[in-house]
Amino acid sequence: MKNKLSEEFKNRFDAEPLFYASAGRINLIGEHTDYNGGFVFPGAIDKVIMAAIAPNDTDKVRMYSIDIDDYAEFGLNEADAPEASWARYIFGVCREILKRGGVVKGFNAVFAGNVPLGAGLSSSAALESCFAFALNDLFNDNQIDKFELAKIGQSTEHNYCGVNCGIMDQFASVMGQKGKLMRLDCRSMEFEYFPFNPEGYELVLIDSRVKHELADSPYNKRRQSCERVAKRLGIETLRDATMEMLDSIRTDITAEDYFRAKFVIEEKSRVLAVCDALNAGDYETVGKKMYETHHGLSYDYEVSCEELDFLNDIAKECGVSGSRIMGGGFGGCTINLVKKDLRDSFIKTAKAKFNEKYGHEPSVYPVVISDGAHKEE
């Protein structure tokens, strides 16, 4: 990818660039916990957005996206926002740095990536993080700390792309380290690294290539359920709830609200159990907790779908150590912790059975936990 970027940059701008990259991400466990003040457990992966960049001594940004073969040019004032949606991500990063008192000057850039689009691996966060890291290095002597770079990416989504996202995707993309997952406390924003060196295992994403269109707003409805239960318990979020507390008010709330809250409370415990298991190198317990999360997402939180449950069942039948929905639900991927000697047969079986039932093969993405945003030497 670096050679392709270098060649394209020299052809377009007749100059030597610097190279920067940032990663997509997975979340091993901890789903629908962020807005409940709980924990998430992401890591950066070996699928990246990479950019070739150099200052151009003007007040203009000149950008070319190799993957979609499109060019954009824009100034750095609020009124200069570009039309193209992909360019707004980079414009937003520039503006958010400037709003914080940072420096951004005109630059030329060419970028490309191998983060699969639409698979829930956060290609947009990788794009934001790549440019936030690069502009911090080029124009600010790296004076903006990494956590603030993640917030710059999040603010870009909120203010320039119309997505009211949490911090997890950008956090993982910026802060990721090879061979480590991160437990992020979504209430305090404190985080801790945990070793992820699963010798004898691999992480494999199976993408159903399905996304169900929903008539209502299921995410908002679930969030409202959680907020109603927290209010009834007299606490700020379900982070502070226990199953004993929930059971004590079971007759006062709807069955739907009870099961939504049950999932969130149990998921908090699963994340902490996975932390202990990783420290002990116990990947079979990690896998068991992943299956428990899938069951909770399917039956208590009801954000799965037929295709994802089918993939989860195939994983069990094939002896896969752990499998669950990854992401908000209603389509997308399962994330699977697979023993290496089962990997090929599992993928072959999943492809064949899914194709037989649904008329298309799922996409398969092996992933390795890798470094987040960095300068390519």
Structure description:
With 377 residues, the chain is an alpha+beta fold. Helix content is 43%, strand content 24%. The chain contains eleven helices and 13 strands. The protein has helices at residues 2-13, 85-99, 123-139, 146-160, 168-175, 218-233, 243-248, 255-279, 283-300, 306-317, 340-358, and strands at 18-27, 39-40, 42-55, 60-65, 70-75, 107-113, 180-185, 191-195, 201-211, 322-326, 331-339, 363-367, 374-376. A six-stranded mixed sheet has the order 5-4-6-3-1-13. The mean pLDDT is 94.
The top-level CATH class of the largest domain is Alpha Beta
* Shape call: globular
Please give the radius of gyration in angstroms: 21 Å
Task: Please indicate the count of domains.
Answer: 2
Distance between the termini: 14 Å
Secondary-structure-based class equals alpha+beta
Percent range of helical residues: 40-55%
What is the count of β-strands? 13
Spatial arrangement of strands, main beta sheet: 5-4-6-3-1-13
Strand content: 15-25%
Average pLDDT, all residues = 94
Task: List the total number of helices.
Answer: 11
Summarize the biggest pleated sheet: 6 strands, mixed
Q: Can you name the CATH architecture of the largest domain?
A: 2-Layer Sandwich
Low-confidence stretches: none
CATH topology of the largest domain: Ribosomal Protein S5, domain 2
- Run of helices and strands: HEEEEEHEHHHEEEHHHHHEEHEE
